[in-house]
Amino acid sequence: MTSFWSWWIILLTTACVALVTWILFANRTSTLGSGKTTGHSYDGIEEYDNPLPGWWFQMFVATIVFAVGYLIYYPGMGSFPGIGGWTQIGQYEEEMQEAEELYGPIYAKFRVMSVEDAAKNEQAVQMGQRIFANNCALCHGSDARGAFGFPNLTDGAWLYGGSATAIKASVSDGRKGQMPAWGAVIGDQGVTNVTAYVRSLSGLEVNADAAQMAAGKKVFDATCAACHGAAGEGNQALGAPNLADNVWLYGSSPARVAYTIRNGRNGVMPPWNDILGEDKVHLVSAYIYSLSNK
């Protein structure tokens, strides 16, 4: 914060407190039952100029004193840090330290377990489920069954592998998937042909003749097989999905498949290790692993 804005806040805050104090005392009447009125008449009805009840006036004074003390002890006057030394970062670190002391022993018990063993422990799975609900459910759903563009974590179909190690790596380090756009390369007819061929790999009904299917396979072999495999079986090392298992991240309709081929897709799974920490990543990985490994 520049010195100008710091002084701007200081002056405005000081003026506000001073004006409130002046208004309170300048309008104070000390004599009860004097018969004086405020001088206003409302349809012939006049209002006596009686003082506030003592307890009420004292409460107003107490709030002003509290405000002044607060602004001296805590930061609130521009860049003045306050004499108490309080900072939001310090408060956060203090609360995190208290949480570590309280929950650290619980996490330590599961830290020494493998993901596979933790996935068999009811308490570990319950803790992982709560972590998942607070951080992962927004994309993958509260039941972890995914949504459009977000993988289902319960069906056993994995882009990067369903082993405990692979799942933990995905949660910890994140993933970046990229499907290049092929529309400009293969043209509209090529998109139409390869769409029919790709959908046929998973047993979907397609409206295409043998010539179109052959043309689609030729395009697939030349442009798609390098990542998805010759039979469309996918490649977990590259994050290339299996096209023959009838599991579709972006939909299996002809329009959806054609859009993916023509325009490509870009999916990002953010890394969670720096946000959750290793212990929580371990537990949520165990929960996810348990979903498809009953």
What is the number of domains?
A: 3
Structural class: mainly alpha
Mean pLDDT: 93
Helical proportion? 55-70%
Share of β-strand residues? 5-15%
From the spread of the alpha carbons, the general shape counts as elongated
CATH superfamily caption of the largest domain: Cytochrome c-like domain
Quickly give the CATH architecture of the largest domain.
Orthogonal Bundle
> How many individual β-strands?
4
Described by strand count, sense and barrel closure, the largest sheet is:
2 strands, antiparallel
User: So what's the CATH class of the largest domain?
Assistant: Mainly Alpha
Helix-strand pattern: HEEHHHHHHEHHHHEHH
Q: How far is the N terminus from the C terminus?
A: 55 Å
How are strands sequenced across the largest beta sheet? 1-2
- Identify low-pLDDT runs: none
Determine the CATH topology of the largest domain: Cytochrome Bc1 Complex, Chain D, domain 2
Kindly provide the radius of gyration, computed on alpha-carbon positions and rounded to a whole number of angstroms. 33 Å
- How many H/I helices? 13
Strand and helix layout:
Blueprint: H1 3-26, E1 37-42, E2 45-48, H2 54-73, H3 88-111, H4 115-118, H5 122-135, H6 137-140, H7 164-173, E3 175-179, H8 183-201, H9 210-223, H10 225-228, H11 254-263, E4 265-269, H12 273-276, H13 278-291
Antiparallel strand pairs: 1-2, 3-4
Helix pairs in contact: 1-2, 3-13, 5-13, 7-13, 8-9, 8-11
What would a concise description of this structure say?
The chain has 294 residues and is mostly helical. The protein folds into 3 domains: 3-73, no CATH class; 90-174 and 271-291, Cytochrome c-like domain (Cytochrome Bc1 Complex, Chain D, domain 2), CATH 1.10.760.10; 177-269, Cytochrome c-like domain (Cytochrome Bc1 Complex, Chain D, domain 2). 56% of the residues lie in helices and 7% in strands.
